[in-house]
Write a structure and sequence with these properties.
The chain has about 325 residues and is α/β, with parallel strands linked by helices. It folds into two domains: about 5-140 and about 265-295, 3-Layer(aba) Sandwich (Rossmann fold), CATH 3.40.50; about 145-265 and about 295-325, Rossmann fold (3-Layer(aba) Sandwich), CATH 3.40.50.2300. It is built from 13 helices and twelve strands.
Length: about 325
């Protein structure tokens, strides 16, 4: 028997499932802020989100309250933290990365705003970028050309490099996609790739020990929460190995990394505030398209370059958005 779908009925059912949070005068909205990172590593991200809210007229203690929960780098804590926010009956949950599926697993009714996620469609978090459906929307931090661009920049810094190591997590499906992108770009740049599979801290030390002989011309570190949790260790080992390394975010370079090229995460967090505003004004997450990165940053640390005995080409420095001297 052929099924007949009535659009008006479907819209009504969706509206009943995800009630609009139209702003009410005098009401204080409760925002759940869930992060897989340690609180100490949120120094630029949470403030960017708060600034975005403030610019839209939301002041903490006046018309919003932000309930902060941190997993301190431990993914297994996320489900319990998500359930805690649901019990508090927050109006919206704002989270990124591994926090998104954890929040979605805890609620199918509370709107969830992604600050970032590499591939929300493949992860089953949204039906499509244009029409998310369900209770999740927000921002994706993945841009297909980013990873190959990092390889190009690394090759510009070390033209003689014939082999580049790639630090990745096999359990991260987006890392495998990025590795394919790198493998496609490598031949034209005259380099071969050496993949270093890493899961925990002990694997990081072991991975760097394998780079002593033969020593590759450079290292490319893919983005992962686990890597950010051990950022200090990775940066120190790269410097100790005198290995030219490119990272995904400027914070790595601020911590002593050589250079980075990638999405501006503070910009994503600032933009996440616009989703919160729209939802509080009555829009449904199902109808708000997922947006991709708009702002990218290239950061170089000349102190680190000098420390590892490397000269950064002047034309490359001229293209940098930020240079640490």
């Amino acid at each position: 028997m052929k099924k007949i779908f009535f659009p008006a009925l479907g819209a009504l059912l969706l509206a009943l499932t995800f009630p609009a949070l139209a702003q009410q005068p005098g009401r204080v909205y409760r925002i759940g802020y869930l992060s897989v990172l340690p609180a100490a590593q949120e120094k630029t991200l949470l403030p960017a989100f708060q600034q975005g809210l403030q610019e839209l007229g939301y002041l903490e203690g006046k018309n919003i309250v932000i309930e902060q929960r941190y997993a301190e780098g431990k993914r297994d804590r996320l489900p319990a933290l998500s359930a805690d926010l649901v019990r508090l009956k927050v109006d919206i949950i704002v989270t990124g990365g591994a926090g998104v599926p954890a929040a979605k697993g805890a609620t199918s009714t509370i709107p969830i705003v992604m600050t970032y996620h590499a591939n929300p469609v493949a992860a089953g978090l949204v039906a499509s970028l244009a029409q998310p459906g369900g209770n999740v929307t927000g921002l994706s931090d993945f841009h297909g050309e980013l990873v190959s661009k990092r390889l190009e920049l690394l090759k510009e810094v070390v033209p003689a490099a014939s082999q580049v190591a790639v630090l990745l997590r096999p359990a991260n499906s987006t890392h495998l996609l990025q590795l394919k992108e790198l493998q496609a770009a490598a031949p034209a740049l005259g380099v071969t790739l050496l993949s270093l599979d890493v899961e925990g801290r002990e694997d990081i030390d072991r991975a760097f020990s394998t780079l002593r002989k033969p020593r590759p011309g450079g290292l490319l570190v893919l983005g992962a929460t686990e890597f950010r949790t051990h950022r200090r260790r990775i940066v120190d080992l790269a410097a100790k190995s005198r290995l030219p390394t490119i990272f995904t975010e400027g914070e790595w370079v601020d911590s002593g990394g050589l250079m980075s090229y990638g999405t501006s995460f503070p910009d994503l967090y600032w933009r996440a505030a616009t989703y919160v505003d729209k939802i509080l004004k009555g829009r449904k997450p199902a109808d708000l398209p997922v947006e991709q990165p708009k702002k990218f940053e290239f950061v170089v640390n000349l102190k680190t370059a000098k420390q590892i005995g490397l000269t950064i080409p002047p034309n490359l420095l001229a293209r940098a958005d930020k240079v640490i001297k």
